[in-house]
Amino acid sequence: MKKFLKNKAGYAAMVGGLVALLITIIVGILVYWQISGSITLTTDSANTSRDAVNTTAGTVFNLLPIIAIVVIGSIMIGLVVGFGKK
Amino acid sequence: MKANKSTRIKQNNNGYAEIISGLLVLLIAIIIGILIFWSVSPNMPGNVASRTEYFTGYTLPTGPAHTGGSNYSAQVITLDYVPNGASNSSVAVVCYNSTGKTTSSPTVTIKNTKITIPAAGSNIATPPLGYDQINVTYTPMIYDDVAVTETNADTVFDLLPIIAIVVIGSIMIGLIIGFGKGKKT
Lengths: 86, 185
Hints:
- Chain A has 86 residues and is an all-alpha fold.
- Chain A has helices spanning 2-5, 8-38, 44-63, 66-81.
- Chain A has four helices and no strands.
- Chain B is built from three helices and seven strands; from the N terminus they run ααβββββββα.
- Chain B has helices spanning 5-11, 13-40, 141-177; strands at 51-56, 75-78, 91-97, 102-104, 109-111, 114-117, 133-138.
- The model of chain B has no long low-confidence stretch (mean pLDDT 82).
- The interface between A and B is large, with 47 and 56 residues.
């Protein structure tokens, strides 16, 4: 983290990383729902299980982008903590 | 003793130019990131608030007694995307009769992408009967999930430039703290 904060080029790399993360999440959503939609299950038990997984997957997809916000928060806190330090 | 980078910046006028160029790179990277993200996200297949799919090839009842036709047996259709709900209120299924220009909205069973349209009763008296097209309007699950990611991405892109402000703040505070300390030899 210290090394990263002192590296000016690291900020640009971090932005690229966050954008890559967000795009990966979106592509992941597309891939997941395409696969989930294409699977045909014949029994009610299997369908119930699939619905439960879909619900949890929805929660996961809602939580994933928050990682990016947490990363930015950690960088800001790292900078603020380093104020005035030699 | 090896001086750290912060000290080097303060003692070196070129250091400020490096910081400015670093911040400029950061801001440009943010703008390019926004461009890339908002070019990709809205163009994802299935990322639409409302999608209508049309299913054709069904047959109408024939003869004076209006017998036969697709509506006399249950029909199963497969959507392209998983809808964001499994109720009849979230997935609008409209059976269309092109001859009589009439529509009906039967209660259907929805399981993932499969929709089962029940068989119509055999005692329908008023012609025209049946349907030869099924229109299904729904919101894909992809849209709901991507919408959350886009909302959070908005927050991310709002927060990213603040890093530049915090960097500037840290430099200013570092300078103020160094007031009156004199030049190191």
